[in-house]
Design a protein that fits this description.
Layout: E1 4-5, E2 12-13, E3 17-19, H1 29-41, E4 46-48, H2 64-76, E5 84-89, H3 102-116, E6 121-126, H4 135-148, E7 151-157, H5 161-174, E8 181-183, H6 197-204, E9 208-211, H7 227-230, H8 236-239, H9 245-261, H10 265-274, E10 281-284, H11 289-300, H12 305-315
Parallel strand pairs: 3-4, 3-10, 4-5, 5-6, 6-7, 7-8, 8-9, 9-10
Antiparallel strand pairs: 1-2
Helix pairs in contact: 1-2, 1-11, 2-3, 3-4, 5-6, 9-10, 9-12, 10-11
Length: 316
C-alpha cells in the first residue's frame, strides 16, 4: 500500500482514511471490529473519529465511536504504532463541554485517551472554529499536550482560508505549534469551499489535507437518484440537496466512467480525490465487508487523465 506523508506531522498514512462516524451508529461494536480488521488487513492504517461521534443517535451521548476504536485496539493484537488514530475536540457534548478553551481541551483529551485506551492520540483536530476562545489559548493548550506526549500532531477542521492564515500567523508570531493538517468538506459536488485560496494555502504551507464527506454523504455512490431513494435511509436527509441538475450531471459522468472501467461510481469519486493535488487522503466509511473491499479498489484505481478532466469539468 502506498504511504503518503501527512504534511509536516512526521506521520505517514495510506491514501484513504476510515471514517469512524459509523461506529455506534450504523455499525455496532462487533460489526465495527470486523470492519477495522478488514481495513487494516488490506494495508490501510488510519481511522478518523471525534469525541462527539455518535451523539446524534437516540440514547447516545458522544464518545461511542472512540470507545469502539479503543476496544478494537485492545483486542486486535496490533502494535499501537500500526494505527494512526485521528480524533477531534470542540463540538458540543453538553453545558461547559464544548469549544477550544484550555480548560476544555485539557479535560476532553483525557476523556478521549480513556475511551481510546491509549496513551497518545496521533492527530488531534480542532473540530470547529471557536470565536469565544483566542487562537493563542487553543494553540498553547495543544503545545502542552504535545510536550507531554499525549498528542503527536495537531490540525483543524472546517477553517476557511482567512482563519487558517490567521492561525498560522499567530503560531509563528507567538512561537506556538501550528496546525499541520486541515480537514475540509470536499468531494466532486462540494468543491467551492476548498478549491482556490484555501487549497493554494495548504499546498504552499505543506499542510496535510484529509477530506470529509468525500462521497457527499453517499450521494456519489449513485444509489440516491430520486427522493424515493432517500426513504428509510439513515443519511437520506443530508443527501437531498444533491438531487439537482448539477448532481445528476456529475452522476452521469460517473456512470459513463463506471461503464468504461468496470469500477463503481463511489470508487471513481474517491479515486478522483486521491489523485487531486493538495489532498493527502479522503475519509470514507463502510458498514460491511463488501464496502471495505470497494474502498481498497478505490485506492488502487488509477483514472486516465481524460477521465479526470471530464470529472473536473462537470464538477466545476
Amino acid at each position: 500500500m502506498e504511504m503518503r506523508r501527512l504534511g509536516r506531522t512526521g506521520l505517514s498514512i495510506a491514501p484513504l482514511v476510515f471514517g469512524g462516524n459509523v461506529f455506534g451508529w450504523t455499525a455496532d461494536e462487533k460489526t465495527s471490529f470486523g470492519l477495522l480488521d478488514a481495513f487494516f488487513d488490506a494495508g490501510f492504517n488510519a481511522v478518523d473519529t471525534a469525541d462527539v461521534y455518535s451523539s446524534w443517535v437516540p440514547g447516545n451521548q458522544g464518545g461511542e465511536s472512540e470507545t469502539i476504536i479503543g476496544g478494537w485496539l485492545k483486542q486486535s493484537g496490533r502494535a499501537r504504532d500500526e494505527a494512526v488514530i485521528i480524533t477531534k475536540v470542540g463540538s458540543e457534548l453538553g453545558p461547559e463541554r464544548k469549544g477550544l478553551s484550555r480548560r476544555w481541551i485539557q479535560q476532553a483529551v483525557e476523556d478521549s485517551l480513556r475511551r481510546l485506551q491509549t496513551d497518545h492520540i496521533d492527530l488531534y483536530l480542532s473540530h470547529w472554529p471557536d470565536p469565544q476562545t483566542p487562537c493563542e489559548e487553543t494553540l498553547a493548550a495543544y503545545e502542552t499536550l504535545l510536550s507531554q506526549g499525549k498528542v503527536r500532531a495537531i490540525g483543524a477542521s472546517n477553517l476557511d482560508a482567512g482563519q487558517l492564515r490567521d492561525a498560522l500567523d499567530i503560531a509563528a508570531a507567538r512561537g506556538l505549534p501550528r496546525y499541520e493538517v486541515l480537514q475540509p468538506e470536499y468531494n466532486l459536488y462540494d468543491r467551492a469551499a476548498y478549491d482556490g485560496t484555501l487549497r493554494n494555502l495548504c499546498i504552499a504551507e505543506e499542510i496535510g489535507v484529509i477530506t470529509y464527506f468525500s462521497l457527499a454523504r453517499g450521494f456519489l455512490s449513485g444509489k440516491y437518484r430520486s427522493h424515493t431513494d432517500l426513504e428509510g435511509s439513515a443519511r437520506g436527509g443530508g443527501v437531498e440537496k444533491y438531487l439537482d441538475g448539477r448532481g445528476m450531471r456529475i452522476l452521469g459522468v460517473l456512470d459513463e466512467i463506471a461503464e468504461e472501467t468496470g469500477a463503481k461510481q463511489a470508487e471513481i469519486a474517491l479515486a478522483w480525490i486521491i489523485a487531486r493535488d493538495g489532498v493527502t487522503a479522503p475519509i470514507a466509511s463502510a458498514t460491511n465487508r463488501d464496502q471495505v473491499e470497494s474502498l481498497v479498489r478505490s485506492a488502487e484505481l488509477k483514472l486516465s487523465e481524460e477521465a479526470i478532466q471530464r470529472l473536473n469539468d462537470v464538477s466545476q
